[in-house]
Automatic annotation (TrEMBL):
Enzyme class: transferase
EC number: 2.6.1.-
Name of the molecule in the record: Aminotransferase
Organism superkingdom: Bacteria
Pfam name, any one: Aminotran_1_2
Record flagged with keyword Transferase: yes
Swiss-Prot/TrEMBL cofactor(s): pyridoxal 5'-phosphate
Family: Belongs to the class-I pyridoxal-phosphate-dependent aminotransferase family.
Amino acid sequence: MNSAHPERKLASRLASVTPSVTLVISQLARRLAAEGRDIINMSSGELDFDTPQHIQDGAVVAMQAGQTRYTDVGGTAELKAAIIKKFKRDNQLDYSAKQIIASTGAKQIIFNAFLATLDAGDEVILNAPYWVSYPDMIRLTGAEPVAVVPAADEGFKLTPASLAAALTPNTRWLLLNSPGNPSGALYSAEELQALAAVLADFPRVLVMSDDIYEHIVYEGQFVSFGTAVPAMADRTLTINGVSKTYAMTGWRLGFAGGPEWLISALAMLQSQSTSCPNAIAQAAAIAALEGPQNLLAEWCDRLRTRRDSALAILRESPDLWVETPPSAFYLFVGCEKLLGKTTPAGKTLGSDLDVAEYFLEQAGVAVVPGTAFGMAPYFRLAYSIADEDVDRACELMVKACGELV
C-alpha cells in the first residue's frame, strides 16, 4: 500500500493573492461571540432590510412554473429585456440583447472582464480607497493594480491630474466605483467628463464603471460614466446588480452592459466556469427591476437618518475624523490621532488594524481597517444595521477612544 502523500503544490498565481487583513478581525469577532460577548457587526456590506415581498413572490411563482432549469448562459431573454429597460430608464443608456450579460453577482463580471482582457504587464488604475477584492482579482490575471491615493482635499476621488500621472502605455483599464465603497464618494457628470478627456490619447484604455450602489444617494445625483461620456460607449463596461439596491446580496445576480465584443468574451468565460446564473434569482431580478421602485427612496431616507446619527456621535471624539459621504452606506473614518496611544490593557496602537482590534475587544464593535482598502490609517463601518445598533456601536467606539492614554 502506497502511503505517500500527493504533492501539495498550489498554482504560482495564488502567491499574488494577499491574505485578507480583515481575516484577523473576523476570527477575533467569532471568538469573542463564542465566549458570549455581545458583538455589533459593522463590517458587512449588506443592508439589513428584507428582500421586498413582491420580489420573493416573483421567485416563488417562477419555481412553481418550473423555471428551475438551465437558461442561456448570459441570462434569459426576459431578464435581458428587463435590464435593457432599466439601463434606459435610469441611465439613458441604450443596449441590445447582445450587449447585456447577467452573472452570479457583479463580482463575477468584474473578474471575468479582467480575465478576458488582461495579460502580464498590463495595468489597471484604481481609485483608493477601493473595494478590497479589486487588486487581487487583477493580480490573478498576471496584471498589476495601480492605486491612486487622493490628496486630502480631493474628496476620495481621482482628478484629471492624478489620472494623467498614473497612465502609462501599459494601462488597460480605468476602474471607477461611484458611489464608492468604502468612501461613499460620488462623481459628477463634469468630473467624469474631465477624466474622459484625459483618456483621449490612450485608445487602448477601457473604462469599468462599477455602479452597484447607484440608488443609495442622499445628496447630489448619480451619473454613470457611460451616461456622462456617450462617445466612449465602445470602451465602457457598465456594471450593476440587484444586491445593494434591493437587499438581495444572497441571490447573487449581477449584470452589465457593454460593447458586444467584450460581452461575448464574458459569456464564453462564463460558459466554461459557472454557466448560467441561478434561474430562480433571474426571475426575482425581473420582479425587482420591473416592480415598484418607491421603496428605494424610503430606504434611502432611513439610511440617511442612520448616517447623520452616526456622524453626530462619532464627531464627539476629537480623535476621529470623518467627512459626510453623499452616497452608499459606509463611513470611512480617519483615526490617525489614535495611533501611538495606549489601551487600558497596555498595548500601543500602531496601525488601523490595531485600532480595529481595539474597538472589537474593548467596545465589542467590528469594523474593517482602512489598510484593506488601500488607504490608512482609516476604518470603515457600515451603518446598514438596525438604527439602535448604529447609535450604540458609535457611542461605544467614542467611549473606547476616551479610554486611551
